[in-house]
Amino acid sequence: MASLRVEENRKLMSPNSDISFEELESSQPKPSSTRSSGSDYAFTMSKGSASRGFCNFKMPNGRQMRLIVSVSVAVVVAVFVYLIWTPSHRRPIVWNPPATPPATPPAPSFPTSSESTTSRPHSEDNSGVQKWVKPTGFKIVGLVFYGRPRYVNVLDCYLKKNLVSHGGYLDEIVFMVNTKFEEDQEWLDKLIETEPLYQKKITTSLGGHFDNIWNRHATDENTLYVKIDDDIVYVHDDAIPRMVHTLMDHPEAHDVAANIVNSPLTHWIHYHTEAILPYMPDTSNFNGTTKDPTSWRASDLQRFNGPTNDTWEFHDRPKGGFPVGSIGGPPSDGHRWLPMDPTSENLMKTPIAAGKAYDPWGKGWTEWTLAAQQHYSLLERLEREETGKYWAGNQEGIWNMQYTRYNLNFLAIWGKSVKMMGVAADDEDALTVTIPKALKRPCIIDTHALVSHFSFGTTPELEKTDLLERYRLYANEKVCAVDNQKKKLEPQFYVYHKNW
User: How far apart are the first and last CA of the chain?
Assistant: First the structure.
């Protein structure tokens, strides 16, 4: 009924209606009292506003106003007393959100080429002519993770050539001793006597973890460290200078790694840049002993003419490795590999075609035959002066690892960077993946900084090739000083064992 009445009144109040205001007012029911009760408010229609549909609000009476004022005053007084007398620990907790932390820790500042009197020319051959100017204002230290004399016997020539006393970049070289064999330590002591800029520090690693070396001995903030594994058997003349300048020119990088021959990742790159050549093991002296080579040159090797399959087959590695003469193992002790005609068809028959993968845990880490083929290919490229075949990446030759795990066999890094975050037990993961990703500063490879890493612990069969002797012969001819020609060591130093 109420809705019908409202609708009827609305129509009567229409501007087009003929009903007068007096007639409309007389039609409304009269209230029983002229005074409002409680908190009800009275609405009245004025004659002037009826035709426009407006209402006038009637103010509360005196009693209602006094009540509203009294309540308002009481509320204000109560709040004031509460804030003054209530202990602070009982007041409401106001949460102020903390300032948003930076997405990454602030990057430390490093010397740059523009801040140092340097030039950045580079030679692309192995002429040995020094074309670099060493930067000033900070120290450059070589850290050699030492344990195996048979490799350092060759590495020593490259280390001395890169010392400042011989026109190189390294102010000193520290051998981080990590071996439990006294004979290996005594051999190093004799080597250190030959060079005033050589020194050693005794360290201890547990299960092959090297975090203690980094965190204790590579944190000087005004030093650039070049970490070198003891089984590096070739270092291009430009490798260390290029890595130093690349690290200076690229402060957005956490560290700079060398382009490593015999790496689970870079072998894939070298395959696609056509640096790797087709080689096969020589089986002519099967299960016998082969004489040491007298030349490192591939041109002195005969062509491989043995039987081949269309594809190379890998075999499951038995515990302890492949014995000499076994299926999948070295055909003989001290055996050599022979080159094939350099065609794509022949390359498809070799280990590299079957095992190539951009994978830190792939065949490049576990298969000794894939490693052997890479080493023989490098020696042939060195003879041809074709190390440019190994270059890749952008115009500078930079390959961004994009936070993918990479080998630490040869690495340039600021001590400030090591100190900033610290290095975990798995230093390889820490310095190429975890820390670079956290800082948004990737590890990069300077692909012109070419080095050769002899072997992993997973490929002891390489010791049954003649490769180490070939690298020694190359170093004697191209790198070692006349008074530092290297001889083959005593047999006990060639026994394969772990140092911890």
Answer: 100
Contact 107, 251 (CB under 8 A): yes
At residue 48, the pLDDT reads 43
Q: How far is CA 92 from CA 78, 83, 402, in A?
A: 16, 10, 49
CA distances from 169 to 49, 153, 351 (A): 99, 21, 37
Total Cβ atoms within 10 A of residue 136: 10
Q: Which helix (H) or strand (E) holds 424?
A: none
User: HSE of 293 in the Cβ direction (CA atoms, 13 Å)?
Assistant: 22
Is-contact 382 345, C-beta < 8 A? no
258 pLDDT higher than 90: yes
Are 359 and 267 within 8 A, CB to CB? no
Residues listed for the chain: 500
8 Å CB contact between 406 and 359:
no
466: Cα separation from own chain's centroid = 34
- The per-residue DSSP string of 158-224 comes to HHHHTBGGGTSSBSEEEEEE----HHHHHHHHHHHTT-TTEEEEE---BTTB-HHHHHHHS--TTEE
CB of 448 closer than 8 Å to CB of 127: no
Q: How many CB atoms are located within 10 Å of the residue 268 CB?
A: 19
> Which band of pLDDT confidence, cut at 50, 70 and 90, is reported for residue 58?
low
If you average pLDDT over each of 37-41, 70-74, 188-192, which comes out highest?
Answer: 188-192
Percent of the chain with pLDDT over 90: 65
Distances (CA, A) of 37 to 41, 387, 406: 8, 104, 88
The string of DSSP codes covering 240-291 is HHHHHHHHHH-TT-SEEEEEEES-TTHHHHHHHTT----EEE--TTTTSBPP
Mean pLDDT of the chain: 83
Residue 221, pLDDT above cutoff 60: yes
pTM exceeds 0.70 for this model:
yes
> Of 494, 446, 490, which Cα lies nearest the Cα of 466?
494
Q: How confident is the model at residue 126 (pLDDT cuts 50, 70, 90)?
A: very low
pLDDT of residue 40: 41
